[in-house]
Design goal:
Order of helices and strands: HEHEHEHEHEH
Largest sheet: 5 strands, parallel
Number of helices: 6
Radius of gyration: 13 Å
Distance between the termini: 33 Å
Shape: globular
Oligomer: single chain
Length: about 120
Amino acid sequence: MSIFFILLSVSVFSQKIYTLNVLQTLELINSDSSIIVIDCRNSLSFKSGHLPRAVHLDVYDDAFDQKLNVFDKNKVYLIYCRTNGRSKIMLEQMIDNGFRTIYLFEAGFLKWKESDFPIEIE
């Protein structure tokens, strides 16, 4: 999987795509408050608990494309879902739409919760 993303980051020219494990994700969230964290699970899952500072954008929402294009493509994003299925879809969409820097939390919220890291509940 990591080789795929290394090759991907080379092939998309000005875009930077990184994959993170659970510890790297925690470090990134704690060290850089400018990163926009996007949870791409459904509303119920998001409301029951999400990563600190996360905003919600359901990848299966009918208006997903319009909502995604509201975000500034030059900012830095960390995206995740429960186990990495939806976030891979979001990653592809963000790459296709020209987002420049994206971190993919590969392990997902399930691993975050198992690690007993802080969560926010709506």
